[in-house]
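Per-record layout

source: Herbidospora solisilvae
name: Transglutaminase-like domain-containing protein
length: 658
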Amino acid sequence: MPPLRRTIIAVVCAAGAGAQSLVYLRVFTDLQVLVPLMVAALGGAAAGLVTRRSGRLVALASACAGPFVLTGAPVAQLAEGLWLGWIRLLTIGLPAPVSGDLVATPILITATAAFAATITALRGGSGRALVVLATAFGVGLLLSASGPGEGVPLMGAAVVVLVVLLRVGPAPGRLRWAVWTVTVVTAGASGLVSAGGHDRFDPRTLVAPPPLDLGNLANPLARVRPQVCEEEPAGLFTLEIDGPVLARIRLVTLDHYDGITWTVGERFHVPGVRLGRGEGDPYRLRVTVTGLTGPFLPLAGQPERLSFTGAAPVLVEFADGTDTVVVDPPLRSGARYEVTVSHEAEVRPGDFLALPADTGPWLAKHAKEMTEGATTPWEQAVALEEKLKAERACADGAPAGHTLPALRRFLLDGAGGTVEQHAAAFALLARSLGLPSRVAVGYLLGEPVGGLHQVRNRDAHAWPEVYFEERGWVPFDAADGDLTPPRPTDPPPVSPPETHQPPPPPLPGGSQTGGRQVPWISVVLVATLLAVLALWVVVVTVTRLVRRLLRARGTPHRRVLGAWRESLDRLAEAGVVVRRSQTPLETIGGAPVTTPNPGRLADLVTRVQFSVGETTAVEAERAWILARRLAKDLRDVRPLPRRLLASLDPRLFWRSWR
């Protein structure tokens, strides 16, 4: 093949690989990611153009080296990305930052696709080159988020490869027909993906992030009272606010109660460039840790962006439904970070109404007694706050704990309680009335000094929050009045009264655990392997079918040769060594069958190849009959598992007699 034509084919395959890599823009919205991906496509195609068979692995590694250098990531980070990058792509929040460990896998896929497509196309496999690009695109779909229009990159790759490869030079009619067929099927499939991509299955939903090592960390709600009661005041962190005046800052939001303790029931995920998407004008918080320990970050509102000054934690995870961020390793003195926050995003109120299965009717009855005369959700929440303040004052000697029996004693026995009991009891009472509620743990903020809030251990506090559709989450304080920061007193606009009923309690013995979910990495790994296997089965099956149809077309002479090539495929699958230098009789001699069919086929093929006369249609039909008999004889002498494995052999695509 002339050098110019080879170069054009390599450039076309690079363009096709670059087009399929555009699917990763659903993961990385920063266009900077296109630089290493396009370099990977060019490098892979160039390696496929100049390499020889013996040095292909080295050439592919060289093609990936350039894009890896462009990422500017350390070697250790790139190595981790090659090993575990696909898992991080499935667990990180979107959009993801352009970092070496995340880009390593797309670079490898793109370079490999360009490399394999170029080698295949240079050997005359234009249709197979398109299949290679389609396979790379399918892997990209598994690693990226679903969304409309995601089939466009594959359609672009299909059109580019089709139009140019067919015009690079003359090709047999059957090859052109095969490429057109594969392209139409590929473009049609990608069009379906593009039209309904926003509803397709997204494997990201099955993946849980790696668990944080929280050790034996005490429940944050139970830690409020010990901090307040410490003999010596201790500084925990300083806070600078570029925005509205805040009365409190949240450490953790607890939304799940199992009758023993309040926990974060929502699954955490690894955030991307943006943590959440709140409403309203964002503002910034700058925090410097001086004595605070533990994995929870002090925050306010819905965090959107988070950046650390100096060494950042190895792992950051975010629960957007509760606006809680945890880090590993835990915070230490000297840590500094800046967070951009906004008002809380929209929530599903029904997620904050669950009660323990063994609550009993006493809670709802007591809540109705405390809110007698209140007709709107706002009035009910205010009534609960006022009743608890008036009748259940905080007591220094009150026993700690917020288990269901402890809260029942606190509410029914008329004794004083702790801050944690006031907050926990309020949230349960509100839920029994159908008011979505949760418990927040954090710190009260005093007046700033020089623009900085000095937060100390004695500022620790816990409070309940109730969700109103018109105003979002509104904090209430059921503890002593002097601990209550200012809160708007005008009730939100009242819609027509709507009756909220708490959800039915879960069945006894049902699993309703708070805390963190068990990672599904093993499930995702198995599902990914099965998906790749299924895709490979489809590709191999379609390829075999198209080849068989093409080989059975044309003149009688071509049909006889097509039957012989079909038989060579079956012999190779049976383990027979096939060499181009062998005659048909020598090739058939290695067949593990005793029937006369192989010899008859070899004689017929030899006669047709060296005959000076015209091959007849009868000879062509007989050749295909003998080929089918040979395939049956080979199936009969091999066990089913070996036949299945042989049928999926990737060497089907580049055997020398193609």
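summary: Residues 552-653 form one domain. The longest helix spans residues 521-551.
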